[in-house]
Design brief:
The chain is α+β, with helices and mostly antiparallel strands and 108 residues long.
Length: 108
Amino acid sequence: MINYEWNCKTVDVYPQDGEYTDVVYNVHYYVLGEDSETAYQSNLIGTQILNVSDITDFKPFNELTNEDVVAWCKVAMGEEQVAQIEDTIAAAIEDQVNPTSVTMIIED
């Protein structure tokens, strides 16, 4: 079983956006997957733009948690892209567990 850990603690903010300050508009995500049986790992890094054109539930920056931003990031991505990221990590781990190619060195 692969466990996924999403880290969305690094963000870009608009210092001022209307009445709000430090509005998160871009998330830098780091997703780590680890196979609990083999301890093999793989990760994926990227960014996700958030739609801040209609803020309904603003949360001040100093009250944000990683879980808050992970949830925003996943909603912005949509289920299909989240699944694609986790599937890519799972495939990379599977390739480590059962490699289809290896690099070898001939020793003379």
